[in-house]
Design brief:
By secondary structure, the chain is mainly alpha-helical. The chain has seven helices and no strands.
């Protein structure tokens, strides 16, 4: 039983790490993006931080010895991808349109992956293992309560994805407007003004007069 509980807790530690990394990325991104988009990004950051604190609160109640952080491959890859983009956002002084959209599109994929991770966790025995441990502590936390927590996380990730897509659309609209404003405009008083009378006739007349 202890081994199963440790496995369940290990997954929670990995989730906590991912949500903390997501907070750092969103926070770094918000500092490099102009308002109002930066405000929406910052909201996503604090959602991730809240998730991390909730998960950490669950872990604090579980009396288990510290173990090596051994996350599953898919969770490690998600955390590494988030960390990679955090470093990129932090080191780049000016996030242009292309870089911003690239990071935001990657974040939509990460939110999808996190949603899938939480869905799989709900289907696993881990929820029951954690709920049973809380029952031993005489805490009124049943399995359905734990499920509700992660169902809320899943709903949140879906909303995050929608928000990110809306921000990408805003950036694309602004970029399109910028390109339109840079395009040269031509105004003609007369549509045929560019047509000039040929000077060949006058040149020929001049040559004839000079010859005579």
């Amino acid at each position: 039983m202890v081994e199963k509980l440790q496995e369940s807790a290990q997954s929670l530690k990995c989730f906590n790490n991912i949500e903390t990394e997501a907070f750092r990325l969103y926070e770094a991104l918000a500092k490099k993006i102009n308002p109002p988009e930066s405000s929406f990004i910052l909201c996503l950051a604090y959602d991730s931080l809240k998730n991390a604190k909730i998960i950490q609160g669950i872990l604090d109640y579980i009396d288990l010895p510290e173990t090596e952080n051994n996350c599953k491959k898919n969770l490690t890859e998600i955390a590494n991808n988030i960390s990679k983009f955090t470093k990129r956002a932090t080191k780049t002084n000016n996030l242009n349109y292309e870089i911003s959209c690239e990071i935001l599109k990657e974040l939509t994929n990460i939110e999808d992956q996190l949603s899938e991770v939480y869905i799989n966790y709900l289907k696993s025995p881990s929820i029951i293992n954690i709920a049973d441990e809380f029952s031993k502590l005489a805490l009124s936390m049943r399995e359905r309560n734990f499920k509700k927590i992660f169902e809320t996380f899943i709903e949140q990730k879906q909303k995050h994805r929608e928000t990110l897509i809306e921000i990408i659309y805003c950036f694309e609209a602004k970029e399109a407007e910028r390109l339109r404003s840079m395009a040269p405009t031509f105004k003609y008083k007369n549509p045929d003004e560019w047509i000039h009378e040929s000077t060949l006739h006058s040149f020929a007349d001049t040559q004839v007069k000079e010859t005579s």
